[in-house]
Amino acid sequence: MRRPVGITTRLFVLLTFVATFAAPRGAHAQLHGGTTSAPVQAAPKESAQFDFLVGQWEITAEPKAATLAQRVHGVPKLAGTWKAWRAFDGYGIEDEIRLTDKAGNPNLLTNTTRFYETKTRHWVIAAIDVFKGQSSQSTAEFRSGDLVVSGRGVDSDGKAYISRATFLKIAPASFTYRLDRSFDDGKTWSEGITLIEAKRVAATAPR
To answer: How much is the CA Rg of the chain, to the nearest whole Å?
Structure first.
């Protein structure tokens, strides 16, 4: 744009700015040699697979006995809450688990985001274990009515494992969560490393 005679430089810059950014979306794109962006598509139906988790739950967690003393006397159960909200404009959810011991001392705080990826057609999951200062990534897919989350990790002794967390018996007011681990790349599994029973207490959860 050439500056007309009699127009100050400052006024010319202002008029150029208005003409550029107040123009219709298509005209602005053409001005810069680009194209208008594609319309946003609605979230696919598969992205509703984790909707059952939305709300607030009371949970009890039972770790698997690892020592002889625990096998004889049992392992104390942990109590807590599991809260979830819809996120990513309907493409996924965000959830938070808190567990305490019998005395009410904090034991676990985990924040997780779950996003359904349309290209790979599975869930992409990122979790942060706040107290341990660790993050992890995993994937999930529906198998015969159950949601199965697959990931990898390292235990407290430094041994690498693959994990398999399954949401079972999914119902409007309850579900079961079972965590399994394998230290030989899936040849054998130690099932029920942690078993969680959840009971719904509210359809929505406060953040």
So the answer is: 25
